[in-house]
From TrEMBL:
GO cellular component annotations of the record: plasma membrane
Domain Ammonium transporter AmtB-like: 25-449
Principal location listed in the UniProt entry: membrane
Species name: Dendrobium nobile (Orchid)
Homology family: Belongs to the ammonia transporter channel (TC 1.A.11.2) family.
Function: Involved in ammonium transport.
Region spans: Disordered: 462-482
Transmembrane segments: 25-47, 59-78, 134-154, 166-187, 199-217, 229-249, 261-285, 292-310, 316-336, 357-382, 402-423
Identification of the protein by name: Ammonium transporter
Biased composition (Basic and acidic residues): 462-476
Lineage of the organism: Eukaryota, Viridiplantae, Streptophyta, Embryophyta, Tracheophyta
Any one Gene Ontology molecular-function term assigned to this protein's record: ammonium channel activity
Entry membrane topology: Multi-pass membrane protein
Length: 482
């Protein structure tokens, strides 16, 4: 069945002839699940996992990025990622009044991606739903990438510098990776496989976050030495939203509610669970206690690792990838990090380099090993792709995956550095020392909890509480009040 390039039915009708309502419903549901990973998922996770004085600022960095990406995305960044080719690695930013802008997008089917082999052009994906659905789905992916970068910068980046960083990095880094690998660019044409963002989202955010953290500088010495989470239970709520939201993250990438979508969701949960258990076991073996934060890190590395191959591998491979993602990032974070002068110098607040860059690279590489030929044919129909495990020419695919990763790494190191250097000409990248000492109250004039802070006596006159157990100097007798 051919898909019309414009609406062919009655323009007053509620449903177009070409619309597949089931696919459209699933795609919007998947997009919403991914959006919930960011808001409230990562907003809550960031707000709970940091020191109390940074809870508001950390949550706000995520909230701001989610909003800022939306406006940039519908105005120019979507077309740069999935539009017509400007360069082999970059799409055109069409004028705002072009035929693919905003509400006009609801009138036509989503754009078709093509793979060209010699003189033969074969459709990769022909979604039977409006362009607006595709814009929505891809926007929440772009937004979460910026929010993941924020995880490397919590507790010291100047909020005004962050406000400038988000649109610049989206425009000059994210759109490059997205077009090159997903939008028909040179890596897509060459056959590099990234099913749902192991490279475009996780490898790029991990490398960019680490690079930006280098230029911004570290947290205060006091914060680096002691940075206890202010609310572990709240952090677990955010982590739970992240895990469950990943069903949309990976399950929505076939662009249809089909068997491959179901496989991707199943593999996602298998790998995440395996990785969490492996990470926890390693914590028990080497540190004698199971860490809740460690379990969440293991969960995340599993989710990240399976992402580039979620719909391309079998269940046994998802378990193997979970074992690797629960152990190798654990090793780089717990062992290598403590022995590397470079990793020690760069203050990556939440270890995004390990949980996303290392795990994303690992996922892309293992996809090159375990990608099953039949599933590959559904993803890249004319490349004869297969993982090295399945024989010749699988070794070639593994090398393609490594080269694709190196391009994403190199581009992000260079472009993120340039963006940071340009921003700091006008705006200091790091907060002033007085803001670093006080935290949220100095930066936003707001605090996360109406409780006394580190080393602060509870004063009735300050906190609005008074009873007969009050000392003469205004401090409350806590044992009596309790």
């Amino acid at each position: 069945m051919s898909v019309p390039v414009a609406y062919q039915g009655n323009t007053s009708a509620a449903v177009a002839d070409w619309l597949n309502k089931g696919d459209n419903a699933w795609q919007m549901t998947a997009a919403t699940l991914v959006g919930l990973q960011s808001v409230p998922g990562l907003v809550i996770l960031y707000g709970g996992i940091v020191k109390k004085k940074w809870a508001v600022n950390s949550a706000f960095m995520a909230l701001y990025a989610f909003a800022a990406v939306w406006l940039c995305w519908v105005t120019w960044a979507y077309n740069m990622s999935f539009g017509d080719k400007l360069l082999p690695f970059w799409g055109k930013a069409k004028p705002a009044l072009g035929h693919k802008f905003l509400l006009k997008q609801a009138e036509i089917p989503a754009s078709t991606h093509y793979y060209r082999s010699g003189d033969v052009e074969t459709a990769m994906a022909t979604p039977y739903y409006p362009m607006a659905t595709m814009v929505y789905f891809q926007c929440v992916f772009a937004a979460i990438t910026l929010i993941l970068i924020a995880g490397s910068l919590l507790g010291r980046m100047n909020i005004r510098a962050w406000m400038a960083f988000v649109p610049l990095w989206l425009t000059f880094s994210y759109t490059i990776s997205a077009f090159s690998i997903w939008g028909g660019g040179f890596l897509f044409q060459w056959g590099v496989m990234d099913y749902s963002g192991g490279y475009v989202i996780h490898l790029s955010s991990g490398v960019a976050g680490f690079t930006a953290a280098y230029w911004v500088g570290p947290r205060s010495t006091k914060d680096r030495e002691r940075f206890p989470p202010n609310n572990l239970l709240l952090m677990l709520v955010g982590a739970g939203l992240l895990w469950m939201g990943w069903a949309g993250f990976n399950g929505g990438d076939p662009y249809a509610a089909n068997t491959d979508s179901s496989l991707a969701v199943l593999n996602t949960n298998i790998c995440a669970a395996t990785s969490l258990l492996v990470w926890t076991c390693l914590d028990v073996i080497f540190f004698k206690k199971p860490s809740v934060i460690g379990a969440v890190q293991g969960m995340i590395t599993g989710l990240v690792c399976i992402t580039p191959g979620a719909g391309l591998v079998q269940g046994w491979a998802a378990i193997a990838m979970g074992v690797l993602s629960g152990s190798l990032p654990w090793f780089t974070m717990m062992i290598v990090h403590k022995r590397s002068s470079l990793l020690q110098k760069v203050d990556d607040t939440l270890g995004v380099f390990h949980t996303h860059a290392v795990a994303g690279f690992l996922g892309g590489a293992t996809t090159g090993l375990f990608a099953e030929p039949t599933l590959c044919s559904l993803f890249l129909p004319v490349t004869n792709s297969r993982g090295a495990f399945y024989g010749s020419p699988g070794g070639v695919q593994f090398l393609k995956q490594i080269v694709g990763a190196l391009f994403v790494i190199g581009w992000n190191v260079v472009v993120t550095s340039i963006i940071c250097l340009i921003i700091r000409i006008a705006i200091p990248l790091r907060m002033p020392e007085e803001e670093l000492v006080v935290g949220d109250d100095a930066v936003h004039g707001e605090e996360a909890y109406a409780l006394w802070g580190d080393g602060e006596a509870f004063e009735a006159t300050k906190h609005g509480w008074s009873d007969d157990t009050q000392h003469g100097d205004g401090r409350i007798n806590r044992s009596s009040a309790a």
